[in-house]
């Protein structure tokens, strides 16, 4: 089985399909980022609409681009060029388009004149609210890097007011519109995507309760359940989320992926493996291993605080920041984590669409 | 458990030889030269001051000579002379300061900018530097770094590099013939580098490698440790720069197809150190972690621990829980036999006597 955290079996490598690498230097390589990056380069659109989470291939401008994300649950990303007005155009089947979507992400360029973008967003929201009131509208106020904190908040306030006024003028008081300040130069874009994805997960509350429980039992400061390849976190415990802990956990996954790429992706010879089963161990190599899933831990010098990582399945990993000086408790922690991981697997088994 | 007993006496016996081989700490003068804007100060900051590549944008031009004493492995102080490359300075080095700059040089690192418009002029400057160097420090080692290679397209990178190296070698040979240099052939080592990937670590690790005293002792001790704990590979890192000081690879480990793995691991860990520093708010140069471990199921295990005061040891092992734990303990025991790495000399003598 291919796993970014344990290494690949070369015999199973089929054309390298769908393997997305997150290398450190090409800091824009993450799929979510690529997707947003592409917008500016290609159509310089002020608006963009998507549902789901990510895409990888560059699209041709002025066409809707559909991508699916093979992960712990299936997402489809529809990438809309900003210049098309879908409600004005009879060739679009609105029902087919919005009938099944969960969220609409609308990207506004904060460094540009956004009045037109906001006006078009308003039209879209009003159209959607009449027929599909359950679609979550997520507004990414993007490219906020380089803007001062005050100015960022001013823009957010201004856009929020413009949209809410328009909505209440038409009699919609509690439309599900959420705003995020995002930039590709830090982790904010991942955080925003994470929050959108979380809204689409059925019974997120149970997931969060499991993690909260784990944190309480093992005295973790913070635990995240990550989608390994996209670095989106699909659930976390109920302690307040902060960017710093998200960043370190996400970067730790990168470290493990990179190291695994170097040492886990080549096959050891048969004779060598057999020699490892001889004296003094006298045991099958498979029996010498404690866990078939990747387990990892790093102890920071600062307060002796460990960060732990445990692979949940092919796509997901649990990463947690532990309590100071708790490395000695690691075996106990691993047992507790094992129980939670079984719980998580059952959860996904039950909630997965039949 | 048999391993534990076996490792201590054999390593201890080897430690005994160390005492005689440790020499007085030397201050080697390392000249860093090249045209203005070729990236000398940037690479110095990345290697020795824990800058990340994009932070080097903040550096201004170096005025005259920037002297720094880089402590490396405790008993090795690099006397690093970062020489500003503007022409006025260069002329100054070659005339008034000629003796001052070029006498007692251990290593010259000459940096060429691959994008330079005026190659002929670069070569002329290089030749005059060489003439001064061969005059006052004929035994100096010379490293030629062809820098900013990331700007060259990947397909032609190798060819462009070879071309430029050929030119440098040709100029050097011409100069040597013309000057009747007594020392015979000049030892010149070329590297293609870029601050945006691991190539920089490869070049500097090799430069440092040649400067480290008692290298053969370190190597043989690492080898016996590696065999005892059944490792696939051992990497010994210097604490602040995370350059590989020495390494050992088992016969099986030699089959790893990733040939640039040492510098890749340097790069990965150094980047993660920055992440930790951001997370904990501790200074970039401070020690960031004491232990990292990762068990990738039935593929491989790895751990990286704070080894001696100035080094980290990374161990790549075949899978197996017992093997992993025994190796970790053995490495902690082996610390004693590597204490000489930290110098000063007396400490080395004491530790091996103990």
Automatic annotation (TrEMBL), chain A:
SUPFAM superfamilies, alphabetized: P-loop containing nucleoside triphosphate hydrolases
Species this protein is from: Apiospora hydei
Family: Belongs to the GTR/RAG GTP-binding protein family.
InterPro entries: Gtr1_RagA (IPR006762), P-loop_NTPase (IPR027417)
Protein function: GTPase involved in activation of the TORC1 signaling pathway, which promotes growth and represses autophagy in nutrient-rich conditions.
Assembly mode: Component of the GSE complex.
Keywords: GTP-binding, Nucleotide-binding
Protein known as: GTP-binding protein
UniProtKB/TrEMBL annotation, chain B:
Keyword ATP-binding attributed: no
Keywords assigned by UniProt, alphabetized: GTP-binding, Nucleotide-binding
Gene3D superfamilies: 3.30.450.190, P-loop containing nucleotide triphosphate hydrolases (3.40.50.300)
Domain of life assignment: Eukaryota
Chain ranges passing through the membrane: none
Pfam families, per database record: Gtr1_RagA
Signal sequence interval, chain numbering: none
InterPro entries, per database record: Gtr1_RagA, P-loop_NTPase, RagA/B
Free-text function comment from the UniProt entry: GTPase involved in activation of the TORC1 signaling pathway, which promotes growth and represses autophagy in nutrient-rich conditions.
Family: Belongs to the GTR/RAG GTP-binding protein family.
Subunit relationships: Component of the GSE complex.
PANTHER family: RAS-RELATED GTP BINDING RAG/GTR YEAST, RAS-RELATED GTP-BINDING PROTEIN
Protein name, as recorded: GTP-binding protein
Source organism of the structure: Apiospora aurea
